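Q: Start with the shorter request: fold the first protein.
A: Done. Sequence, then structure:
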Amino acid sequence: MHHRIVIVGAGTAGVSVAARLRRAGEDDVALIDPARDHFYQPLWTLVGAGITNMQRTKRPQSSVVPKGVRWIQDAVSEFDPEERTLRTASGALVTYDALIVCPGIELAWDVVPGLSEAMLTNHAASNYAAHLAPKNAELVRRFRGGDALFAAPATPIKCPGAPQKATYMASDFWQRTGVLKGINVTFATGAGGIFGVPEFARVLEGVVERYGINTRFSNELVRVDPDARTATFEVTNSSGKVTETLGYDFLHVAPPQRAPQFVRESPLTGENPLGWIPVDRHQLNHVRYPEIYSLGDVCDAPNSKTGAAIRRQAPVVVSNVLAMLGGREPTARYDGYAACPFTTARGKMLLAEFDYSLTPHPTIPFINTQRERSDMWLLKRYGLPAYYWNVMLRGLG
């Protein structure tokens, strides 16, 4: 089958782009994705905090695919960019004039030995999986004392602030229920600091101090022993690298993440072992194939992998794809904008907005978003989900 524009992936990026293309008058758009359900994943932080439930983050995929877009409910198995074709798992051959690749990324539990096994125990969970976020809420609720360990990798992950959010929300619950003084909370990350934008890092350092959280930077989780309840880290310091092992009674992990296998093993990837698709960081076109674009978590643009980034990337991709198909020079540019809504307590949120320059990039006028705010909590809890389902996925903003 042939389609003028083919989109691989019906997550936030794919549906948003498809809706914008339809609004621009494109009537030959195909969307390839096998998933039956569509999730608003940013709300999983609050699922893991026991504030909402998983059902509220999910809708049938059929309800969000734009009218007039052909949904091919199948998985992609291989790409042949030289021939402008791809093949699906069922064997269908699809050709295209323009291809937009945005299948999201996968959780790489297997990269850390023992991590998958730990998630099967009553001492570990993660807000990064639909079946584990509700478990995290239950474990946090029942925890009354001991060592609580939160770990995150240095490699790119979707919503890189989410591991901190899990730490803060759990600490806030324990503080409000009077048990925090008996809990040793540690946040260990492979990153070199709490946050890359100094203006927001200062606020987060205050949050860490408020809860008495022990921070360990340049600590990469390399092994978990679920029977002994220990986590081993590769620690980078001025002398080189050493390994250190910490015990835990409660463990929350943001697992390493990578491009899906069908992308990693395709001609679309670059030299990155995680399989990110190499694009021009501003125009988001593939560096080798001008008819291919990529956005969202799977591309290698050096921005934070957030839904807010996709909101700014989608109109750029649509504009440039339409220009390319019309024989015009693509001129739309993405500036690296991303946003991370840090939930620092129940009822408080810090909205960190920034771009490639790693400087604040506020988009809400008249209020100071460089501090924790209760109105920003309402935005996270109610405003952003409503915007997502009713505006963003419909190609309206």
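Q: Next, the second protein, separately.
A: Sequence, then structure:
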Amino acid sequence: MALNTTLCYLEKDGSYLMLHRTKKKNDLNSGKWIGVGGRFEPGESPDDCLIREVREETGFRLHSRRFRGIVTFDSDDAPETEYMFLFTSDDFSGEETVCDEGDLRWVRKEEIGSLPLWEGDRVFLRLLFEDAPFFSLKLTYRGGKLEKVLLDGREYDG
């Protein structure tokens, strides 16, 4: 089985909109800061899912987005492999709403590294900050710890 998800980093004034996961029960991401997004619903494309999830979690309507890469999560703690479609956008409008999954906050890019993040998120955030070309990233977790990173099929140590 596989799980398909989207993740988006909305960008404004040198900051990303980050979601501090604090409100959902039994949340794998509890206490972590992540971008916005979520699971595909039946029949959705990555774009459909992204547009819906951003609107539901933030209140913002995306006008355009940049598809940055595909991240594969292989974890012995998860029942299935996750394929995450990673996007950024600086073209959106609307009023920010309250998110029922956590607290939204605009965080300056240079401050994001000091937040509680997944180890693998630090890898793809670095690639986003460096404006890396489209990439395929595989993150292998064992016992909750990042064990192996493959970037475009090659070992990567960042």
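Q: Describe the second briefly.
A: The two ends are 30 Å apart (CA to CA). The chain is about 20% helix and 50% strand.
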